[in-house]
Amino acid sequence: MLPYLAYGLIYSTAEWWRLAGSDNAVGFWENAKAYFIYAGWHGYFLIIAMQFYAAYWAFTRWQLWRIHPVPWLWVACVVSMAYWGFAYWFEIDPPGYLLWVAPLGWVYLFFLALVLVRYYPLTPSATLNERPVWLQTLSQPRWLALFVGLIVLATFAHWLAFSSKEVWVIPFFVLFTLALMRGLKGRQAPGWVRYINAYSFGIYLAHPMFFVITDVLVGPATLPVVAYGLLLILIGSVGSVLLNKAVNTTTLGAMLFGKRLKV
Questions:
Q1: CA 211 to CA 233: how far, in whole Å?
Q2: What is the pTM of this model?
Q3: So what's the pLDDT on residue 123?
Q4: Tens digits of per-residue pLDDT, 212-229?
């Protein structure tokens, strides 16, 4: 959680400074409260990750791997879908991202990870026949294609809102992951994927900072949309990687601004 405090202070101070003197000016501590207490920035994901660490500790502490994860995955999917469905149905809207940091909305990801670890180990000792029938069936691309078709039809009917916090995203993500693992099982990740993965934590935390720098130096109106988008990707990723390299030269820097992963 140290990066939550360090980057939260940077982003909250920058936002307070940006609004100072404008019609939307806000007090420093009031603005900081929105960032730190209400998790009103993209660092809310760190609170979710912290809860997953706690869940995994409990999982290993009480040897819960003896419980088969598949039924828990289906229960978790229903719980997460019900959570987002009820939240939007009753228009529950707490300050900041408080609605998003509750573990009920993401618990399906935890059990999906347990299922993947069981049936897609890093050293693939299990053959395809050892995977259960339901896994072999749902990993077939036709089910994903069918669900995408339903999404397209519902989109034309104006029934869907597009956000990662929607009920329909959960079965879509599960089907997509299983279909993807059908082709990726047993394959070594390419070098460029492993390189990006090593710095992914730092990229996630720092990229908005470099987006703002790009806006200040170049400006979104000076280039075509595609060129500007590519420039954002280039500066956001390269700048974040270089920053993460720099902070990881010391232990304290890594602790405060994100440790580089060992992959």
A1: 8
A2: 0.85
A3: 63
A4: 999 988 888 888 999 999
